[in-house]
Amino acid sequence: MLESRMSRTVLRGGSIAAPDGLVRADVAFEGDLITEVGAVPPREGDAVVDAAGRLILPGFVDAHSHADGLLRDPDVTRALLRQGVTTVIGGQDGISYAPGDGSYASAYFAAINGPHPTYRGGGVAALLASVDGASPVNAGYLVPAGTVRFEVCGRREGAASDAERARMGELVAQGMAEGALGLSTGLDYVPGIFQDAAEIAALCVPVASAGGVYVSHMRGGYENNTAAGIDEMRAISEAASRAAGAPLPVHVSHLHADADIVLTQIDALAEAGVDATFDAYPYIRGCTLLGMPLLPPEISALETDEIVARLTDPSGRDALRETCVQRASHSPSLGPDWPDMIALAHIAASAFAWAHGLTLREAAARAGADPMDFAFDVLAASRMESSAVMAVHNPRPDGELARIFAHPAHTGGSDGIFIGAHPHPRAAGSFARYLRVFVRELGTWSWADAVHHLSAQPADRFGLGRRGVIEAGAVADVLLVDPETVADAATYERPTEPAVGIDDVFVAGVQVLAGGELTGALPGRGLRREGA
Protein backbone atom coordinates (compact mmCIF):
# COMPACT_ATOMS: atom_id res chain seq x y z
CA MET A 1 0.00 0.00 0.00
CA LEU A 2 1.36 3.43 -0.93
CA GLU A 3 2.02 6.00 1.73
CA SER A 4 -0.64 8.57 2.61
CA ARG A 5 0.11 12.09 1.36
CA MET A 6 -0.54 15.60 2.59
CA SER A 7 -2.73 17.77 0.43
CA ARG A 8 0.11 19.66 -1.19
CA THR A 9 3.89 19.97 -0.95
CA VAL A 10 5.58 23.19 -2.02
CA LEU A 11 9.31 23.48 -2.61
CA ARG A 12 9.98 27.19 -2.07
CA GLY A 13 12.82 29.43 -3.15
CA GLY A 14 14.79 27.05 -5.35
CA SER A 15 15.79 27.15 -9.00
CA ILE A 16 15.02 24.90 -11.94
CA ALA A 17 17.32 24.12 -14.87
CA ALA A 18 16.03 25.78 -18.03
CA PRO A 19 17.74 25.62 -21.44
CA ASP A 20 18.94 29.22 -21.09
CA GLY A 21 20.13 28.86 -17.48
CA LEU A 22 18.88 28.54 -13.93
CA VAL A 23 15.47 30.08 -13.24
CA ARG A 24 14.07 30.91 -9.82
CA ALA A 25 10.92 28.87 -9.26
CA ASP A 26 8.79 27.13 -6.70
CA VAL A 27 7.47 23.64 -7.41
CA ALA A 28 4.24 22.24 -5.98
CA PHE A 29 2.90 18.73 -6.13
CA GLU A 30 -0.28 17.06 -5.00
CA GLY A 31 -0.63 13.32 -4.87
CA ASP A 32 2.07 11.91 -7.12
CA LEU A 33 2.05 14.70 -9.75
CA ILE A 34 3.66 18.10 -10.09
CA THR A 35 0.86 20.67 -10.27
CA GLU A 36 2.60 24.05 -10.47
CA VAL A 37 6.00 25.47 -11.42
CA GLY A 38 6.74 29.16 -10.90
CA ALA A 39 5.65 31.49 -8.12
CA VAL A 40 3.53 29.30 -5.84
CA PRO A 41 2.11 31.13 -2.81
CA PRO A 42 1.72 28.61 0.02
CA ARG A 43 -1.73 27.99 1.38
CA GLU A 44 -2.97 26.67 4.69
CA GLY A 45 -2.18 22.99 5.12
CA ASP A 46 0.73 22.93 2.66
CA ALA A 47 3.93 21.14 3.56
CA VAL A 48 6.51 23.80 2.70
CA VAL A 49 10.13 22.82 2.12
CA ASP A 50 12.82 25.48 2.02
CA ALA A 51 14.72 25.02 -1.26
CA ALA A 52 16.67 28.29 -1.12
CA GLY A 53 20.12 27.94 -2.64
CA ARG A 54 19.29 24.56 -4.12
CA LEU A 55 18.24 23.27 -7.53
CA ILE A 56 14.95 21.47 -8.01
CA LEU A 57 15.70 18.71 -10.50
CA PRO A 58 13.79 15.67 -11.76
CA GLY A 59 14.89 12.35 -10.28
CA PHE A 60 17.74 10.64 -12.09
CA VAL A 61 17.23 7.40 -14.03
CA ASP A 62 20.10 4.92 -13.80
CA ALA A 63 20.00 3.36 -17.26
CA HIS A 64 22.17 0.39 -16.22
CA SER A 65 21.81 -0.92 -12.68
CA HIS A 66 22.37 -4.21 -10.90
CA ALA A 67 20.22 -3.31 -7.90
CA ASP A 68 17.47 -5.64 -9.19
CA GLY A 69 17.26 -7.75 -6.04
CA LEU A 70 18.42 -5.13 -3.55
CA LEU A 71 15.70 -2.48 -3.60
CA ARG A 72 14.51 -3.42 -0.12
CA ASP A 73 18.02 -3.00 1.30
CA PRO A 74 18.20 0.36 3.09
CA ASP A 75 21.96 0.67 2.52
CA VAL A 76 21.44 0.29 -1.22
CA THR A 77 18.45 2.61 -1.51
CA ARG A 78 20.14 5.24 0.65
CA ALA A 79 23.20 5.11 -1.61
CA LEU A 80 21.01 5.53 -4.68
CA LEU A 81 18.96 8.39 -3.28
CA ARG A 82 22.00 10.24 -1.97
CA GLN A 83 23.09 10.42 -5.63
CA GLY A 84 19.63 11.52 -6.75
CA VAL A 85 18.69 8.21 -8.40
CA THR A 86 14.95 7.63 -8.09
CA THR A 87 14.60 4.97 -10.82
CA VAL A 88 16.84 2.08 -11.83
CA ILE A 89 16.65 0.00 -15.01
CA GLY A 90 17.30 -3.66 -14.16
CA GLY A 91 17.34 -6.91 -16.07
CA GLN A 92 20.73 -5.97 -17.51
CA ASP A 93 23.39 -7.94 -19.36
CA GLY A 94 20.98 -10.70 -20.34
CA ILE A 95 20.80 -12.21 -16.84
CA SER A 96 18.18 -11.56 -14.18
CA TYR A 97 15.36 -13.22 -12.30
CA ALA A 98 12.31 -13.34 -14.61
CA PRO A 99 11.14 -15.33 -16.49
CA GLY A 100 11.52 -18.56 -14.56
CA ASP A 101 11.97 -18.96 -10.83
CA GLY A 102 15.04 -16.75 -10.52
CA SER A 103 17.40 -19.58 -9.63
CA TYR A 104 19.75 -19.17 -12.60
CA ALA A 105 20.39 -15.49 -11.98
CA SER A 106 20.67 -16.08 -8.25
CA ALA A 107 23.43 -18.62 -8.88
CA TYR A 108 25.33 -17.42 -11.94
CA PHE A 109 24.98 -13.70 -11.14
CA ALA A 110 25.19 -14.12 -7.36
CA ALA A 111 28.20 -11.80 -7.19
CA ILE A 112 26.48 -9.16 -9.35
CA ASN A 113 22.75 -9.12 -8.57
CA GLY A 114 22.54 -11.38 -5.55
CA PRO A 115 19.47 -13.55 -4.80
CA HIS A 116 16.08 -11.85 -4.92
CA PRO A 117 14.47 -11.54 -1.46
CA THR A 118 10.93 -12.46 -2.56
CA TYR A 119 10.68 -13.44 -6.23
CA ARG A 120 10.35 -17.18 -6.81
CA GLY A 121 8.47 -17.15 -10.09
CA GLY A 122 5.52 -15.57 -11.84
CA GLY A 123 7.35 -13.75 -14.62
CA VAL A 124 7.90 -10.07 -15.27
CA ALA A 125 4.51 -9.13 -13.82
CA ALA A 126 5.34 -10.70 -10.45
CA LEU A 127 8.85 -9.24 -10.40
CA LEU A 128 7.58 -5.71 -11.06
CA ALA A 129 4.81 -6.16 -8.50
CA SER A 130 7.44 -7.06 -5.89
CA VAL A 131 8.68 -3.44 -6.05
CA ASP A 132 5.28 -1.79 -5.66
CA GLY A 133 5.05 -0.19 -2.22
CA ALA A 134 8.13 -2.10 -1.04
CA SER A 135 10.96 0.31 -1.88
CA PRO A 136 11.64 4.06 -1.87
CA VAL A 137 13.05 3.69 -5.41
CA ASN A 138 11.32 2.82 -8.70
CA ALA A 139 12.52 0.03 -10.98
CA GLY A 140 12.00 -0.77 -14.64
CA TYR A 141 12.94 -4.13 -16.12
CA LEU A 142 14.37 -5.51 -19.35
CA VAL A 143 13.61 -9.11 -20.36
CA PRO A 144 17.04 -10.78 -20.10
CA ALA A 145 17.73 -12.80 -23.23
CA GLY A 146 20.25 -15.08 -21.52
CA THR A 147 17.73 -16.04 -18.86
CA VAL A 148 15.15 -16.66 -21.59
CA ARG A 149 17.56 -18.95 -23.41
CA PHE A 150 18.41 -20.78 -20.19
CA GLU A 151 14.71 -21.44 -19.58
CA VAL A 152 14.41 -23.06 -23.02
CA CYS A 153 17.87 -24.42 -23.89
CA GLY A 154 19.61 -24.73 -20.57
CA ARG A 155 23.38 -24.25 -20.52
CA ARG A 156 24.23 -25.94 -23.80
CA GLU A 157 26.20 -24.35 -26.60
CA GLY A 158 25.09 -24.12 -30.22
CA ALA A 159 22.21 -22.69 -32.13
CA ALA A 160 18.67 -22.99 -30.89
CA SER A 161 16.21 -24.99 -32.97
CA ASP A 162 13.26 -23.34 -34.69
CA ALA A 163 10.96 -24.69 -31.98
CA GLU A 164 13.25 -23.37 -29.25
CA ARG A 165 13.40 -19.95 -30.89
CA ALA A 166 9.63 -19.88 -31.09
CA ARG A 167 9.32 -20.71 -27.40
CA MET A 168 11.89 -18.06 -26.48
CA GLY A 169 9.97 -15.53 -28.56
CA GLU A 170 6.81 -16.38 -26.63
CA LEU A 171 8.57 -15.72 -23.33
CA VAL A 172 9.85 -12.36 -24.58
CA ALA A 173 6.40 -11.38 -25.89
CA GLN A 174 4.83 -12.32 -22.54
CA GLY A 175 7.39 -10.23 -20.67
CA MET A 176 6.72 -7.24 -22.92
CA ALA A 177 2.95 -7.64 -22.41
CA GLU A 178 3.54 -7.62 -18.65
CA GLY A 179 5.34 -4.27 -18.78
CA ALA A 180 8.99 -4.94 -19.60
CA LEU A 181 10.82 -2.04 -21.23
CA GLY A 182 12.74 -4.09 -23.78
CA LEU A 183 15.23 -6.92 -24.14
CA SER A 184 18.80 -7.09 -22.84
CA THR A 185 21.71 -9.26 -23.92
CA GLY A 186 25.03 -10.01 -22.27
CA LEU A 187 27.08 -11.50 -25.07
CA ASP A 188 30.18 -12.21 -22.99
CA TYR A 189 28.19 -14.09 -20.34
CA VAL A 190 26.70 -17.60 -20.37
CA PRO A 191 24.46 -18.45 -22.16
CA GLY A 192 24.38 -15.14 -24.07
CA ILE A 193 27.79 -15.89 -25.54
CA PHE A 194 26.14 -18.78 -27.41
CA GLN A 195 23.39 -16.62 -28.98
CA ASP A 196 24.07 -15.51 -32.54
CA ALA A 197 22.71 -12.38 -34.20
CA ALA A 198 19.91 -14.25 -35.96
CA GLU A 199 18.63 -15.69 -32.69
CA ILE A 200 18.75 -12.30 -30.98
CA ALA A 201 17.00 -10.60 -33.89
CA ALA A 202 14.19 -13.15 -33.67
CA LEU A 203 13.80 -12.39 -29.96
CA CYS A 204 13.70 -8.67 -30.74
CA VAL A 205 10.68 -8.95 -33.06
CA PRO A 206 8.13 -8.88 -30.20
CA VAL A 207 10.17 -6.09 -28.60
CA ALA A 208 9.88 -3.91 -31.71
CA SER A 209 6.20 -4.77 -32.07
CA ALA A 210 5.56 -3.61 -28.50
CA GLY A 211 7.55 -0.38 -28.83
CA GLY A 212 10.43 -1.52 -26.63
CA VAL A 213 14.19 -1.13 -26.91
CA TYR A 214 17.08 -3.56 -27.47
CA VAL A 215 19.86 -3.10 -24.89
CA SER A 216 23.19 -4.90 -25.18
CA HIS A 217 26.42 -5.64 -23.40
CA MET A 218 28.11 -6.22 -26.74
CA ARG A 219 30.06 -9.28 -27.79
CA GLY A 220 33.80 -9.69 -27.32
CA GLY A 221 34.39 -6.79 -24.97
CA TYR A 222 34.70 -3.18 -26.06
CA GLU A 223 37.76 -1.06 -26.81
CA ASN A 224 39.16 -2.32 -30.14
CA ASN A 225 36.12 -4.55 -30.74
CA THR A 226 33.54 -1.76 -30.51
CA ALA A 227 33.04 -1.48 -34.28
CA ALA A 228 32.17 -5.19 -34.59
CA GLY A 229 29.77 -4.99 -31.65
CA ILE A 230 28.03 -1.92 -33.06
CA ASP A 231 27.77 -3.55 -36.48
CA GLU A 232 26.05 -6.57 -34.91
CA MET A 233 23.60 -4.28 -33.10
CA ARG A 234 22.80 -2.54 -36.36
CA ALA A 235 22.17 -5.87 -38.11
CA ILE A 236 19.91 -7.04 -35.26
CA SER A 237 17.92 -3.81 -35.31
CA GLU A 238 17.47 -3.88 -39.06
CA ALA A 239 16.42 -7.55 -39.16
CA ALA A 240 13.98 -7.25 -36.25
CA SER A 241 12.52 -4.02 -37.63
CA ARG A 242 11.84 -5.64 -41.00
CA ALA A 243 10.22 -8.68 -39.42
CA ALA A 244 8.10 -6.63 -37.01
CA GLY A 245 7.20 -3.85 -39.41
CA ALA A 246 8.17 -1.44 -36.65
CA PRO A 247 11.46 0.25 -35.73
CA LEU A 248 13.67 -1.27 -33.05
CA PRO A 249 15.69 1.37 -31.19
CA VAL A 250 18.90 0.22 -29.55
CA HIS A 251 20.86 1.17 -26.46
CA VAL A 252 24.51 0.23 -25.92
CA SER A 253 25.40 -0.70 -22.35
CA HIS A 254 28.49 0.77 -20.62
CA LEU A 255 30.09 1.94 -23.87
CA HIS A 256 33.72 2.55 -22.92
CA ALA A 257 36.41 2.87 -25.56
CA ASP A 258 38.55 5.56 -27.13
CA ALA A 259 36.40 8.68 -27.51
CA ASP A 260 36.93 8.81 -31.28
CA ILE A 261 35.78 5.20 -31.59
CA VAL A 262 32.69 5.74 -29.42
CA LEU A 263 31.58 8.90 -31.19
CA THR A 264 32.26 7.53 -34.68
CA GLN A 265 30.37 4.31 -34.05
CA ILE A 266 27.34 5.92 -32.41
CA ASP A 267 27.13 8.37 -35.28
CA ALA A 268 27.43 5.45 -37.73
CA LEU A 269 24.31 3.88 -36.20
CA ALA A 270 22.40 7.11 -36.68
CA GLU A 271 23.63 7.40 -40.27
CA ALA A 272 22.34 3.86 -40.88
CA GLY A 273 18.91 4.96 -39.67
CA VAL A 274 19.08 3.21 -36.28
CA ASP A 275 17.73 5.14 -33.31
CA ALA A 276 20.57 4.64 -30.82
CA THR A 277 21.53 5.78 -27.34
CA PHE A 278 24.20 4.55 -24.94
CA ASP A 279 25.27 4.75 -21.33
CA ALA A 280 28.78 5.22 -19.98
CA TYR A 281 29.77 5.66 -16.34
CA PRO A 282 32.24 8.31 -15.13
CA TYR A 283 35.04 5.92 -14.14
CA ILE A 284 37.80 4.10 -15.97
CA ARG A 285 37.96 0.71 -14.30
CA GLY A 286 35.32 -1.97 -14.81
CA CYS A 287 33.84 -4.69 -12.62
CA THR A 288 32.66 -8.18 -13.46
CA LEU A 289 32.58 -11.80 -12.34
CA LEU A 290 36.06 -13.00 -11.40
CA GLY A 291 35.60 -16.11 -13.52
CA MET A 292 34.58 -14.32 -16.70
CA PRO A 293 38.00 -13.07 -17.89
CA LEU A 294 39.79 -16.20 -16.63
CA LEU A 295 37.68 -19.27 -17.42
CA PRO A 296 36.75 -20.27 -20.98
CA PRO A 297 32.99 -20.14 -21.69
CA GLU A 298 32.65 -23.92 -21.95
CA ILE A 299 33.82 -24.17 -18.34
CA SER A 300 31.67 -21.28 -17.10
CA ALA A 301 28.65 -22.95 -18.71
CA LEU A 302 28.94 -26.00 -16.45
CA GLU A 303 26.97 -26.55 -13.27
CA THR A 304 28.66 -25.01 -10.24
CA ASP A 305 29.46 -28.39 -8.68
CA GLU A 306 31.25 -29.50 -11.84
CA ILE A 307 33.22 -26.26 -12.11
CA VAL A 308 34.34 -26.57 -8.50
CA ALA A 309 35.32 -30.21 -9.08
CA ARG A 310 37.49 -29.23 -12.03
CA LEU A 311 39.12 -26.38 -10.12
CA THR A 312 40.02 -28.67 -7.22
CA ASP A 313 40.96 -31.86 -9.11
CA PRO A 314 44.78 -32.07 -9.17
CA SER A 315 44.80 -34.17 -12.33
CA GLY A 316 42.93 -31.62 -14.43
CA ARG A 317 43.91 -28.40 -12.71
CA ASP A 318 47.30 -28.02 -14.36
CA ALA A 319 45.84 -28.24 -17.88
CA LEU A 320 43.05 -25.84 -17.01
CA ARG A 321 45.54 -23.50 -15.37
CA GLU A 322 47.62 -23.28 -18.55
CA THR A 323 44.51 -22.61 -20.65
CA CYS A 324 43.38 -19.86 -18.30
CA VAL A 325 46.80 -18.21 -18.08
CA GLN A 326 46.94 -18.10 -21.87
CA ARG A 327 43.39 -16.71 -22.01
CA ALA A 328 44.17 -13.93 -19.55
CA SER A 329 47.61 -13.15 -20.98
CA HIS A 330 46.26 -12.72 -24.51
CA SER A 331 43.15 -10.80 -23.50
CA PRO A 332 43.19 -7.28 -25.01
CA SER A 333 41.88 -5.87 -21.73
CA LEU A 334 44.29 -7.76 -19.43
CA GLY A 335 47.51 -8.94 -21.08
CA PRO A 336 50.67 -10.44 -19.54
CA ASP A 337 50.35 -8.41 -16.35
CA TRP A 338 46.82 -9.70 -15.72
CA PRO A 339 47.41 -10.47 -11.99
CA ASP A 340 47.97 -6.74 -11.43
CA MET A 341 44.84 -5.77 -13.36
CA ILE A 342 42.33 -7.70 -11.25
CA ALA A 343 41.38 -6.54 -7.73
CA LEU A 344 39.11 -8.71 -5.59
CA ALA A 345 35.75 -7.04 -4.89
CA HIS A 346 33.59 -9.85 -3.50
CA ILE A 347 34.48 -13.35 -2.30
CA ALA A 348 31.65 -15.39 -0.77
CA ALA A 349 34.06 -17.39 1.39
CA SER A 350 35.00 -16.17 4.85
CA ALA A 351 38.43 -17.78 4.63
CA PHE A 352 39.36 -15.22 1.99
CA ALA A 353 37.80 -12.13 3.56
CA TRP A 354 41.31 -10.74 4.11
CA ALA A 355 41.85 -10.53 0.33
CA HIS A 356 39.12 -7.99 -0.47
CA GLY A 357 40.57 -4.93 -2.19
CA LEU A 358 43.88 -6.61 -3.06
CA THR A 359 45.01 -7.43 -6.57
CA LEU A 360 45.41 -11.09 -7.48
CA ARG A 361 49.18 -10.65 -7.44
CA GLU A 362 49.13 -9.04 -3.99
CA ALA A 363 46.75 -11.61 -2.53
CA ALA A 364 48.60 -14.56 -4.07
CA ALA A 365 51.90 -13.27 -2.70
CA ARG A 366 50.44 -13.05 0.81
CA ALA A 367 49.12 -16.58 0.44
CA GLY A 368 52.41 -17.85 -1.00
CA ALA A 369 50.65 -19.05 -4.13
CA ASP A 370 50.73 -18.65 -7.87
CA PRO A 371 48.15 -15.99 -8.98
CA MET A 372 46.09 -18.36 -11.15
CA ASP A 373 46.13 -21.08 -8.51
CA PHE A 374 45.02 -18.50 -5.98
CA ALA A 375 42.18 -17.42 -8.31
CA PHE A 376 41.13 -21.06 -8.64
CA ASP A 377 41.14 -21.43 -4.86
CA VAL A 378 38.96 -18.33 -4.46
CA LEU A 379 36.50 -19.44 -7.15
CA ALA A 380 36.22 -22.93 -5.68
CA ALA A 381 35.84 -21.76 -2.07
CA SER A 382 33.19 -19.20 -3.04
CA ARG A 383 31.45 -21.61 -5.40
CA MET A 384 32.02 -19.09 -8.19
CA GLU A 385 30.46 -16.22 -6.22
CA SER A 386 33.35 -13.78 -6.66
CA SER A 387 33.74 -10.50 -8.49
CA ALA A 388 36.62 -8.23 -9.40
CA VAL A 389 37.36 -4.61 -10.22
CA MET A 390 39.28 -4.51 -13.49
CA ALA A 391 42.01 -1.94 -14.16
CA VAL A 392 42.88 -0.71 -17.66
CA HIS A 393 46.23 -0.20 -19.36
CA ASN A 394 45.52 3.30 -20.62
CA PRO A 395 43.41 5.25 -18.13
CA ARG A 396 41.42 7.99 -19.81
CA PRO A 397 41.44 11.44 -18.26
CA ASP A 398 38.15 13.08 -17.37
CA GLY A 399 38.61 15.34 -20.39
CA GLU A 400 38.29 12.37 -22.73
CA LEU A 401 35.26 11.07 -20.86
CA ALA A 402 33.82 14.56 -21.24
CA ARG A 403 33.94 14.21 -25.04
CA ILE A 404 31.93 10.99 -24.76
CA PHE A 405 29.42 12.41 -22.28
CA ALA A 406 28.88 15.49 -24.44
CA HIS A 407 27.32 13.36 -27.18
CA PRO A 408 23.54 13.94 -27.14
CA ALA A 409 22.87 10.19 -27.28
CA HIS A 410 24.61 9.58 -23.94
CA THR A 411 22.55 8.66 -20.88
CA GLY A 412 23.65 8.24 -17.30
CA GLY A 413 24.30 4.70 -16.16
CA SER A 414 26.34 3.40 -13.25
CA ASP A 415 26.58 -0.34 -13.98
CA GLY A 416 26.46 -0.27 -10.20
CA ILE A 417 27.17 -3.54 -8.38
CA PHE A 418 26.45 -3.33 -4.65
CA ILE A 419 27.43 -6.89 -3.73
CA GLY A 420 30.75 -7.25 -1.96
CA ALA A 421 33.00 -5.99 0.80
CA HIS A 422 35.07 -3.87 -1.60
CA PRO A 423 32.87 -3.07 -4.63
CA HIS A 424 33.53 -0.64 -7.45
CA PRO A 425 32.80 2.94 -6.28
CA ARG A 426 30.51 3.54 -9.26
CA ALA A 427 27.59 2.02 -7.32
CA ALA A 428 27.77 4.71 -4.63
CA GLY A 429 29.19 7.60 -6.62
CA SER A 430 28.38 7.71 -10.33
CA PHE A 431 25.60 10.29 -10.49
CA ALA A 432 27.15 12.64 -7.96
CA ARG A 433 30.44 12.34 -9.86
CA TYR A 434 28.69 13.31 -13.10
CA LEU A 435 27.56 16.52 -11.39
CA ARG A 436 30.81 17.32 -9.60
CA VAL A 437 33.20 16.70 -12.48
CA PHE A 438 31.22 17.29 -15.65
CA VAL A 439 28.97 20.15 -14.55
CA ARG A 440 30.78 22.04 -11.81
CA GLU A 441 34.46 21.41 -12.58
CA LEU A 442 34.77 20.90 -16.35
CA GLY A 443 31.59 22.57 -17.55
CA THR A 444 30.93 19.78 -20.06
CA TRP A 445 27.25 20.02 -19.21
CA SER A 446 25.05 22.88 -18.11
CA TRP A 447 22.53 21.95 -15.45
CA ALA A 448 19.93 21.63 -18.21
CA ASP A 449 22.28 19.26 -20.04
CA ALA A 450 22.63 17.20 -16.87
CA VAL A 451 18.83 16.88 -16.71
CA HIS A 452 18.80 15.75 -20.36
CA HIS A 453 21.47 13.08 -19.88
CA LEU A 454 20.47 11.84 -16.43
CA SER A 455 16.69 12.26 -16.34
CA ALA A 456 14.76 13.22 -19.46
CA GLN A 457 16.50 11.16 -22.12
CA PRO A 458 16.57 7.85 -20.21
CA ALA A 459 12.93 8.33 -19.15
CA ASP A 460 12.03 8.80 -22.80
CA ARG A 461 14.23 5.98 -24.10
CA PHE A 462 12.76 3.42 -21.71
CA GLY A 463 9.14 4.55 -21.97
CA LEU A 464 8.72 5.66 -18.35
CA GLY A 465 5.91 8.12 -19.02
CA ARG A 466 5.91 11.66 -17.60
CA ARG A 467 9.17 11.41 -15.72
CA GLY A 468 12.47 13.20 -16.09
CA VAL A 469 11.10 16.75 -16.27
CA ILE A 470 9.96 19.47 -13.88
CA GLU A 471 6.64 20.57 -15.30
CA ALA A 472 2.98 20.39 -14.42
CA GLY A 473 1.55 16.93 -15.00
CA ALA A 474 4.86 15.11 -14.56
CA VAL A 475 5.35 12.49 -11.87
CA ALA A 476 6.82 14.16 -8.79
CA ASP A 477 10.12 12.30 -8.62
CA VAL A 478 12.09 15.33 -7.47
CA LEU A 479 15.51 16.17 -6.00
CA LEU A 480 16.88 19.14 -4.11
CA VAL A 481 20.53 19.54 -5.14
CA ASP A 482 23.13 21.85 -3.63
CA PRO A 483 25.05 22.90 -6.76
CA GLU A 484 28.09 24.04 -4.78
CA THR A 485 28.64 20.89 -2.71
CA VAL A 486 27.17 17.93 -4.60
CA ALA A 487 29.96 15.40 -4.98
CA ASP A 488 30.88 11.76 -4.93
CA ALA A 489 32.78 10.54 -1.87
CA ALA A 490 33.32 6.90 -2.90
CA THR A 491 36.83 6.01 -4.06
CA TYR A 492 38.59 2.80 -5.07
CA GLU A 493 40.05 2.72 -1.55
CA ARG A 494 36.76 3.57 0.22
CA PRO A 495 34.15 2.45 -2.32
CA THR A 496 30.97 2.66 -0.25
CA GLU A 497 31.17 6.25 1.00
CA PRO A 498 27.81 7.98 0.33
CA ALA A 499 27.57 11.00 -1.94
CA VAL A 500 26.97 14.47 -0.52
CA GLY A 501 24.91 17.47 -1.59
CA ILE A 502 21.58 15.73 -2.25
CA ASP A 503 19.78 15.44 1.06
CA ASP A 504 16.08 15.73 0.18
CA VAL A 505 14.38 13.49 -2.38
CA PHE A 506 10.73 12.86 -3.27
CA VAL A 507 9.36 9.85 -5.16
CA ALA A 508 5.80 10.10 -6.47
CA GLY A 509 5.38 13.17 -4.26
CA VAL A 510 6.43 11.39 -1.06
CA GLN A 511 9.61 12.40 0.74
CA VAL A 512 11.89 9.37 0.86
CA LEU A 513 15.14 11.11 1.87
CA ALA A 514 15.19 13.92 4.42
CA GLY A 515 18.40 15.44 5.70
CA GLY A 516 20.29 12.69 3.93
CA GLU A 517 18.48 9.87 5.72
CA LEU A 518 15.71 7.52 4.66
CA THR A 519 12.26 8.51 5.91
CA GLY A 520 10.90 4.97 5.82
CA ALA A 521 8.33 5.82 3.13
CA LEU A 522 8.03 3.23 0.35
CA PRO A 523 6.28 4.82 -2.65
CA GLY A 524 8.48 3.15 -5.27
CA ARG A 525 6.90 1.20 -8.10
CA GLY A 526 7.79 -1.40 -10.63
CA LEU A 527 7.52 0.81 -13.71
CA ARG A 528 5.66 -0.78 -16.60
CA ARG A 529 6.41 0.39 -20.13
CA GLU A 530 4.11 3.22 -21.09
CA GLY A 531 1.17 1.68 -22.90
CA ALA A 532 1.73 -1.85 -21.56
UniProtKB/TrEMBL annotation:
Amidohydrolase domain: residues covered: 48-512
PANTHER family attached to this UniProt entry: COLLAPSIN RESPONSE MEDIATOR PROTEIN (PTHR11647:SF1), HYDRANTOINASE/DIHYDROPYRIMIDINASE FAMILY MEMBER (PTHR11647)
Protein name listed in UniProt: Amidohydrolase family protein
Species the sequence originates in: Microbacterium soli
